[in-house]
Amino acid sequence: MDKLTQAMQQWQESILDKQLQHAPELSDHFTTESGIPVKRLYTPADLAATDYVTDIGFPGAYPYTRGVYPTMYRGRHWTMRIYAGFGSAEDTNQRFRYLLDQGMRGLSIAFDLPTQLGYDSDDPLAEGSIGRVGVAVDSLADMEVIFKGIPLDQVSTSMTINGPATILLAMYIAIGEQQGVPANKLTGTTQNDILKEFIARGTYIFPPEPSMKLVMDIVEYCFRQVPKWNTLSITGYHIREAGADAVQELAFTIADAIAYIDAALARGLDVDDFASRLSYSLGCHRDLFEEVAKFRAARRLFARVMKERFQAKNPQSYLFRTFSGSCGSTLVSQQPLNNTVRIAMHTLMGILGGHQAIHTASWDEGHALPTEDSSRLALRTQQILAHEAGLCNTIDPLAGSYYVESLTSEIEKRAAEYLEKIDRLGGMAQAIASGYISEEIQAASIRLQESIDSGDKVIVGLNRYVEEEADLMEEKFFALDPELEHRQRERLASLRSRRNNSEVQIALTELATAIDADQNLMPILIKTVKTYATIGEICAVMRAKWGEHQASRYF
Amino acid sequence: MTEKNKIKVLITKIGLDGHDRGAKLVAHALRASGMEVIYLGHRQTVDAVVNHAIQDDIDYLGISFLAGDHLHVVPKLMKSLAEKGAADHIKVIIGGIILKSHIPDLLALGVHRVFLPGTPLAEIEKFIKQDYGTNHLR
């Protein structure tokens, strides 16, 4: 290293300093999006403390920095998922079949807010929200329509559902049965990550303790009955979208994972029974190198946590398998077509970051649900990058970059410091309840907003290169059918009169008994959804037993 | 109207949506600029918000919408304020993911001002201070 230090010093004195004298740099402090200082130049000296074999290693081998599988995209491309779901079950079924025809490999369902919060479409609180940010599901009857003509043994389905995840999974299992696909053949994911709802997304129903019980009911039931199901998608994406920086996103995601693993261990499961069915989701934000470093650091830090903290033995338990998504908050509603470029960058981050599934947003998502055209473009973006750009020929191509490796280590170090702090606070549940996590996120959110408002952080079309009268292209946006709410309520009324209501009541009573007995609720929920009991009816039983969680007023 | 030291603002979200990043940022910025800010959190109902606003003698009611339900909620909100005799002295400001083409409808309903995505926080603060000044110092 002496030779290097000497050469660098010489370069600085004879070349760099002269340049800086007559042409200063654009800023006196360069940082990543998350505020990590970035040096002018990285050299092998920055990797002096990094050991290739123990810190970087090989794909498919501990500590998995370079990827979770030995051949990565040379063996198989990532699963291209386009998050979709709107309006009625028919609308969503049609969109899914269209996207599958266009080469999409996995479904990703968005549910409307009443469904996510356990309200039926005829509940007064659901008014105005039915089918708006996702598909309206009141009962198994709606799920039957969503999956009509889609064989569940040929697609994997990711469901963005948390509070009532047990109920939607029960419905999915019931649809499988109807199609003759046994539960042990079903593949897919329930997001089921309630901790990040308390931290970031706000779509919780019950207080933390019963919420955690429901999460664990899925983990435990699937270990025994639905072995290929990803029981949880522990999600940093929403934490980032709530204003966290990249380090916080990673740290809080792993802290959540630790809390879930502790809870599963407390149920008497062995870490290697269930850890391989946990999956993860992180966002693709603005800073390409920081994001790639974040994904690499995530794999390494997680593998170390699993090995050192939880003493996992099965290598499958070490894998930080991820679904990445374009951060919607990076999209800009002014000059909306510019978003196609941002989305291509998100896709690039996802690929260079080695994700197992990638969602790309649509250019119009700064303002509306995607149209068929805009979601096709989002899918084509992935296909172009997968096939045309040479990105998949070799594994983890940014490895060995002095900068990316340094940043990977720095992010891992900073995230590990957060984990220590959270441990000192008594674990993630405590850290959330105490307000610490919200305070940290809010501080980062304010920092970022201030840097955008001051113009320090340039956002094209927003605070620079602004076109006052630019076309917002609103006429091209998706518009929801105004008759939808009415139709969905009628459909529900007809279901209520058609089904065997005494069977529904019996099942709901059994559910209440199972809650009192603190049983795993999955078996009774599968039975209950088959009677066409609605999500609202089922959640009403749970609300009566457990109460509801109240929103925080911290800001 | 009695003379008050501070402008009183209530920030909240009505409806089922939980995306509160923007609402919290606005609440923070307004408080930092010297206003008295009450933040009710998300998932509020029209009735609860209006009652709160009246009880706390609020000057500005800021509601954040990100789930596309503003044209459904705002008419109910304005109606409730009017029924309770508060429409004149409580000014409603809307922000969030709102189409520009919706602004005329919202203003026609009696909304005082609509802030679209990307609005610098200082612009919201400046608007409220100037507006308050115009109404209270003449």
Brief write-up:
The complex is a heterodimer of chains A (555) and B (138). Chain A is of the alpha/beta class.
Could you characterize the architecture of this molecule?
Chain A is built from 22 helices and nine strands. By secondary structure, chain A is α/β, with parallel strands linked by helices. Among the domains of chain A are: 63-75 and 159-168 and 186-200 and 208-469, Alpha-Beta Barrel (TIM Barrel); 496-546, no CATH class. In chain A, helix 4 packs parallel to helix 6 (140-146), helix 11 runs parallel beside helix 13 (288-309) and helix 14 packs across helix 15 (372-388). The longest helix of chain A is centred in the last third of the chain and has 23 residues, at 402-424. Chain A is globular and about 90 Å long. Chain A starts with a helix and ends in a 9-residue tail after the last helix. The mean pLDDT of chain A is 95. Chain B has a single domain, classed as Rossmann fold (3-Layer(aba) Sandwich). In chain B, helix 1 (21-32) links the parallel strand 1 (8-12) and strand 2. In chain B, helix 1 (21-32) packs across helix 5 (121-136). The longest helix of chain B has 16 residues, at 121-136. The radius of gyration of chain B is 14 Å and the shape is globular. The mean pLDDT of chain B is 94. Classes of the chains: A alpha/beta (555), B alpha/beta (138). The interface between A and B is large, with 46 and 37 residues.
